[in-house]
């Protein structure tokens, strides 16, 4: 099922790197699903542009294969696939040379819709951004309303991120640049904002006075999956914490923006990042998976037997502001963990006094925002265990998952579908602004420099486990437990 909506305005989406892995697995299926939902009008086009020497018919075959593999049941409908492919074109280009650019420019100029939005998805490594931006301008492909979409990694430290921002700023205004973090496109992440700011119930309690701590886990069971070369240079801190976990932290911790508009939301997120305190070395646990349960070790996966790159990180941090002073935030992410599980848990404090006596036990409200593998929000509340025999308390989940309550309306598009449509609509709310990305690196860099200077080696952990024991110990020392992964 896909949610049905009215078409957005006509657009040309040019996917530079349209034959790559990201295009195949995410971009093409996402656009196809929006086509099936009726959101692409007849004059919309998807133009693949990449190094491979293909003609349009060969690229359509490539698209068909990608949809069969990654677009699920919808791709079984031959008529839908054929209908979508009628929107598809292709031009072979060289991002570093002039080959193909004039042809691409001519093709874009011949669109049926005069006022079609032009969006250029840079689905290539960041080292090509500047070359591509320069050619887009030189060959007259862009105007002041054109948009560019860029993927992570956005730099590997503050300096490289600033350089990338400066390169893009030579050719585009900030309002034209869409830095994707697909976690922000998830329905539940936006629902988190709806829950926080659309209800009277939560916001008055949303501070250090009532919240004991907040934890964010993004666990993957996969290893480095053929991306070893990139990962070896990045590690979990750069690959996940600087962007995805940081973005989730921002949405959880930010002040209510005055309006739900791009700059109002991003201003508040930026304040969160700037309020982050440095992290003490003993509040960081880095890990690296070892061979176990049929899986190779990280070092075998990346082909470097002396690697000190972390495939796991857990850390405790604090925000220096009135709302959160004294409330720790625990972040944890890693590869080859026991299962795929992304969730945010807000753990409220104990009631100030228990009228039920010590035998009733300690009960705390927990708000769990589950992002992967399923999306949903659950509030744990304490009630009386039914039956005679005195007042025994038990925690039950108050399930705020939308599927049952909302029926088909809850059948949300996936993150890439939403984000690509937001690009066409010109809505930057769910995209990272230049100053946010730079502030996130400014916080991340000293942490990385710290462990590099100390020569810290990551702690080994078994593949398909919950990570290094030290991560659990860090929590236990604080009298707390990690939620989720260990269940
Ligand atoms: P890929 O290597 O599979 O594809 C790269 C694409 O760029 C190909 O289409 C290739 O033809 C094209 N290309 C490379 N050099 C070119 C040149 N000189 N001229 C013209 N075209 C050229 O890479 P990918 O996995 O699709 O990743 C693309 C970007 O997205 C990278 O920055 C990556 O870090 C990022 N990303 C990828 C994923 C993923 O799931 N694959 C997830 C998040 C971010």
From TrEMBL:
SUPFAM superfamilies: Glyceraldehyde-3-phosphate dehydrogenase-like, C-terminal domain, NAD(P)-binding Rossmann-fold domains. One of its GO terms (biological process) is pentose-phosphate shunt, oxidative branch. It comes from the Bacteria. The active site is at residue 244. Pathway: Carbohydrate degradation; pentose phosphate pathway; D-ribulose 5-phosphate from D-glucose 6-phosphate (oxidative stage): step 1/3. Its EC number is 1.1.1.49. The keyword Oxidoreductase applies. Pfam families: G6PD_C (PF02781), G6PD_N (PF00479). Substrate binds at residues 182, 186, 220, 239, 335. Keywords: Carbohydrate metabolism, Glucose metabolism, NADP, Oxidoreductase. It catalyses: D-glucose 6-phosphate + NADP(+) = 6-phospho-D-glucono-1,5-lactone + NADPH + H(+). GO terms for cellular component: cytosol. Residues 193-483 form the Glucose-6-phosphate dehydrogenase C-terminal domain. NADP(+) binds at residues 17-24, 51, 152. GO terms for molecular function: glucose-6-phosphate dehydrogenase activity; NADP binding. Residues 14-191 form the Glucose-6-phosphate dehydrogenase NAD-binding domain. Belongs to the glucose-6-phosphate dehydrogenase family. Catalyzes the oxidation of glucose 6-phosphate to 6-phosphogluconolactone. This is Glucose-6-phosphate 1-dehydrogenase. It comes from Shimia haliotis.
